[in-house]
Amino acid sequence: MQPRQYVTLIDTLARFRLRAEARRFGLGYLWWILEPLLYVGVFYLVFVLFLGNREPGFLFFLAVGKLTFIWFSKTVNQAALSLVNSREIMAQTNLPKHLFPAAVIHEGFYRQIAVFTFLLGFLWAAGFSPTFMWLWLLPVMLAQYLLIMGCSLLAAVLVCFQRDFQMLIQLGMVFLLFMSGVFWDIRAITNDDFVFWLQALNPLAALLDAYRQILLWSQPPDYLQLLMVGMQSAVLLIATTWLYSKLHFWLAERAITQ
After folding, report:
1. Residue 1, pLDDT score
2. Are 257 and 84 in contact (CB under 8 A)?
3. Nearest 5°: phi and psi at 111?
4. What is the dihedral sign for C-alpha 234, 163, 12, 35?
5. At a CB cut-off of 8 Å and minimum separation 6, what does 2 contact?
6. Total of domains in the chain
7. Ramachandran region of residue 13, left (φ > 0), alpha (ψ -120 to 50) or beta?
8. Residue 47 is part of which domain span?
9. Rg from Cα positions in the chain
10. Closest CA to 75 of 100, 34, 107
């Protein structure tokens, strides 16, 4: 398959998935924005009304963290099931197996473009005027996209190997929700060694901090930390791509017999 054909096929599958999802709900494509906003609203009520958080700007702090975290969590959770949910297609055609999680990743990217557009407009209306510093969003988004690709491909293999991994991945997302700084500022931690290892072992913590530095405080992200995340994601992506090439027929067999 030529690279152009491969990209076209991924894009077509992603668009089909988006249209099918929109037709299942009365509000259709509006759920792309409504769903993450409802998550932000629920957590804001819990932390502000119930737990008494009175920090100024907490709504914007929470919105940036949650709306960027949900891109990772939702895409990986959906991609984890992409192989087993495509068993009928695998039984009829001999397509590259990483094409199925790649289509889910591309679908999530389309959805996140709409979410980011809303987020930037919301921050602008709230007084966070756009600056040239916002251009830093491009490399940060690229690093997160690579991280999502690597984790999604790995998650799909694990669920194909044993369906129980689906539950573990979902629990892992809950763990990451509280360990990635969605609700708290990683820069408030005074132990520099702990912060270093937290960001090294959890790249999402570094990415969420980078988004906030750019959007809320008009500061550039930590270059070295961003480079580390990009390298970690690239290594994971290369390893998982190699794994798919070696397990091509085995993945099809496991998915069909699940």
Report:
1. 60
2. no
3. -65, -40
4. negative
5. none
6. 1
7. alpha
8. 3-257
9. 19
10. 107
Among candidates 109, 104, 121, which has minimal Cα distance to 37? 121
Structure tokens that stand for 189 in this block = 């931690």
User: Tokens for 66?
Assistant: 């949650």
Long-range contacts at 140-144 (CB < 8 A, ≥ 24 apart): 140/207, 140/210, 140/211, 140/214, 140/221, 140/226, 141/116, 142/230, 143/203, 143/207, 143/226, 143/229, 143/230, 143/233, 144/68, 144/71, 144/72, 144/207
Is residue 32 within 8 Å of 114, Cβ to Cβ? Answer: yes
- In the chain (258 residues long), the average pLDDT of successive 10-residue segments reads 76 82 72 82 81 78 93 95 86 83 92 91 90 94 96 94 92 92 87 85 93 94 91 94 88 79
Asked if 110 and 17 touch (Cβ cutoff 8 Å), the reply is: no
* pLDDT on residue 141: 96
Sorted by sequence, the CB contacts under 8 Å of residue 180 that are 6+ apart come out as 65, 69, 202, 204, 205, 208
d(CA 208, CA 210): 5
Angle, CA 32 vertex, CA 31 and CA 36 arms, to 5°: 90
